[in-house]
Amino acid sequence: MTLLVRDEEDIVEDHLVYHLNQGVDFVVATDNKSVDGTRDVLERFRRLGYVEVIDEPDDTYDQWRWVTRMARRAAIEHRADWVINSDADEFWWPKTGDLRSVLEAVPGRYGILAAPRVNLVPSLVLSSGVAPPWYERMALRETTSRNSLGAPLPPKVCHRGDPDVVVEQGNHELRVSALTLALGLHPIVIFHAPLRSWPQLENKMVKGGAAYARNRELPADVGDAWRSLHDLHARGGLREWYDAQVPDDRARQRGIEEGRLILDRRLAHFFATRVRREPPFRDPSPPVSVALDHSAVDDSPVEREGTEPRARSGAGASRRWLGRIRALRTRW
User: Fold this and answer.
1) Strands 261-263 and 112-115
2) Can you give the pTM of this predicted structure?
3) What is the CATH number of the domain that holds 70?
4) pLDDT, mean of residues 68-88
5) Alpha-carbon Rg of the chain, whole angstroms?
6) Residue 129 covered by a domain
7) Residue-averaged pLDDT of the chain
8) In terms of residue numbers, what domain contains 157?
9) How far apart are alpha carbons 103 and 237 in whole angstroms?
10) Structural domain tally of the chain?
């Protein structure tokens, strides 16, 4: 897995623990100028042998370059069979089994797998007292998800290890690859948690939007959602926009009744019942399947959002690596 982070202290440990418990072997992470506790978390996992950390000092949000660098390193240095390019607020949920078994089952003729995303609904965070973890507060998800501009939320892609791959900005497709997209095959859904609190959003939009503005290579329509929220903040309207995204109890109930929102406690159940609150330990034994409480968990199919990503052909041939990294599993 590759992971690009900046000031993700509130969620990066959960991201790592979750995916290492879902069959991910190793994480190549790039830290882009974090000033909170993000780097401390990455260092802890690095010392345990689960994470390689790359420091990226530039402030231009050249995401496609940085992710491409990590994806190629995963293929060449770590001999990855599959590479998942993820953000810290994305949780790749396999509909059956774990991520390893899902990806191993993909027919060999396919090298790119698209995963639809669904937004988890933000909730009020009280200024006093101890707030529940984000995965408890955000147990509602949308049935049809859109970005901040109202456009359908596009899927993300993962791909077989390829030393010549070029990942497009946003991780929505591959710019250069000889790999073939598996059209219509969606065994993974991504739970997306972009709005966890007002301070988190403000920090992300102020820094991320300014970084986009400094990037002179990307077209103006790339990152348009971030750019628009950055502009909104400059005009003093971002807090009002954020507050409008957080439904009160009445709006949440109405959304459930109308079918726009659905209670989905799969992530909360996973963290509450399966994961210890410290980094995982090495154990070669296979993971136990997640035992869901179907009385409290919605397991209905998730609608596919947006359109299929394009698989662009280009220079470089795909390469299948015969070696495999040692499986790093969590002991329960």
Assistant:
1) unpaired
2) 0.83
3) 3.90.550
4) 97
5) 19
6) yes
7) 83
8) 2-195+265-274
9) 43
10) 1
